[in-house]
Records
---
Amino acid sequence: MTSQVCLLWRSAGLCGFLLLALGCSQPVTQPHIVGTAVDAEGTKISNVELALRSGADKGGGEITVIVKDGVFYVPAATPGPVTAYFKVPPPQNPDYLKSTGVNPEKAAVAGKIAPKYTNAKTSGLTYQVNDKGETKIDIKLDAK
């Protein structure tokens, strides 16, 4: 029994040494975004896609996330400037939504999004993503 405990401690010590030697003692955090979105009245925006476009002038990419109850999260983001805009779905017939079992109140975008926020060129929503760790983006829209 004693030799088994000793072997266990040696194994644990060896694993710990390897982690330190490989540089795993400090967690590496990649750039990511945590954000909130509300309309001009302070209503949480929900059930809508938010597009984040990075480096558009340099052939950069775009990532789309869903805003739910005023919150969105991007687990891996490209450092540097990003432009945000909303991809608002066209209005749907309430009778059709009811027939599919979806509550029309919950299916539509909660919160008012002015047309200027549905285009990357006119949104005016630009942010800087940090090189490491978390970037907090709080979007508060104007009525116009």
---
Amino acid sequence: MVVRFFSAIGWITVMFSFAVFMIAYANFPDEVLVNVNKLGEPLHYLSKSSLFYILIAFLVLFNASLVGLKGILKNQSAYSDWSQTGLHITQIFFNLFFASSVYFFNIINSRENFNYSNFGYLIFVTGILLVISVVFTLVARLVIKK
């Protein structure tokens, strides 16, 4: 039951992160600012189409690899519900990290006068949650047996 719940939440976050990506993509300028220095001055730009393909490939490849890994682990004898739940939680936090990163790109490129430090913590929080979920998955895989 828990595995199905986290699986459903995982797929909802896939759709959510894709929706955030598409909304942000519609607002991007032709040259998207992807890196600024500490003073907020622009350093690196990517074309809108290049960023689209890079980000969509990243989203699809990561989620597809997690689905494939879940299928591989399901057939092993040392498989447990905890390791499957850990993979679903990793998928959830990756998609939240992806959505917050794309949203941050959208904020940087909005041309409005925002204090970017007020939004930067979102990326760090979701990144830390992603790392914690990966560690949880590894511990569940290596320590907890069926």
---
Amino acid sequence: MQFDLLDKPLVYIPVKWPGVKEGPNGEAVATEHSVEVQVEILDRVELVAWIGDSAVDTSDAVDEEAVARILAKELGSFKRVAQGWRGVKAGNKVAPFTDDNIGRIIRAPGFTDAFGAAYMAAWRGQIATRTGNSSGSAEHGQAAEPSDATRKDETNPTPPAS
């Protein structure tokens, strides 16, 4: 595939983060939240500016006015790259991509960290980790070098010696 200098990539990225939900008896049950956010992949200069402009100092978030300023900055930062979403519900309906709904999701515990990590993975072209990449093996460990016993596959085109 060729690289197009005129491209302004607009893609959906998966954002997943751990959380809790109410279980059948009212107890906390671990869950994984998952949404897809449509984002613009910024060029390097825009990315550096976005990261610099996005920095939020929460040390002064002791009153409602300070919290409102922080949330407004986070909302603006999110909307700088995000254009829409999929998989966000409000009750039984699809949640529209509005400032109020965006504010609610960016306040959700863990979302902003997960979004930042997902965005940077997409920016680097690393949308998902290949299944098995970090599982390792009992014999060779997680980061073991290939050995003669390593089976032939895409990462080891030379078959084991017979």
